[in-house]
Amino acid sequence: MRAICAFSASARRVAAAAFALFTANAAIARTFEVVANPDMTFTPAALVIHQYDRVVFRNGGGLHNVVADDNRFRCSVNCNTNTAPSSQAWSSGLQFTRLGSIGYFCEQHGDTTSGMRGLITVIDRVFVDGFEASSQ
Ligand SMILES: [Cu+2]
How far is the CA of 91 from the centre of ligand 1 (A)? Predict the structure, then answer.
């Protein structure tokens, strides 16, 4: 009986710590905007975000979409059913959970190596949480 109680107190502590970490991450996750420009560039062309942040892509003018080099996302009006290059004033976004760099391009004006391209680098937030106030 005593052993069971000790175990469950320990399990409660682990669960509480996991929940605290989860809510801390959720509270500081941010949303960044990348604009597809009329001059066939993305602004910012290179963006560093933290894991679990969101990026919203917005069409600032022209016929564009956004496609990951490894095809993990393809977005324009949305990121699942209406993803072809579009000249609408579209805006669509996604959350980035995988660490590392991911290049992307507009299918109308670029490809996986040249033209209208951008880069998103996702870094681990565990090591920066204490320094949020001074981060970009
Ligand atoms: Cu384009």
Answer: 14
- Each residue of 37-48: b (16+ CB within 10 Å) or e? eeebbbeeeebe
- The tens digit of pLDDT for each residue in 28-63 reads 899 999 999 999 999 999 999 999 999 999 999 999
Ligand 1 center–CA 40 separation, angstroms: 5
Domain spans of the chain, in order of start: 30-134
Note whether 45 and 104 are within 8 A (CB).
Answer: no
The gap between the terminal CA atoms of the chain, to the nearest Å, is 52
30-134 CATH pick, 2.40.50.100, 2.60.40.10, 2.60.40.420, 1.10.8.60? 2.60.40.420
Which pLDDT score is estimated for 125?
80
- Residue 91 pLDDT grade (very low, low, confident, very high; cuts 50, 70, 90): very high
CA of 19 to the centre of ligand 1 (A): 41
How many A from CA of 74 to the centre of ligand 1?
Answer: 13
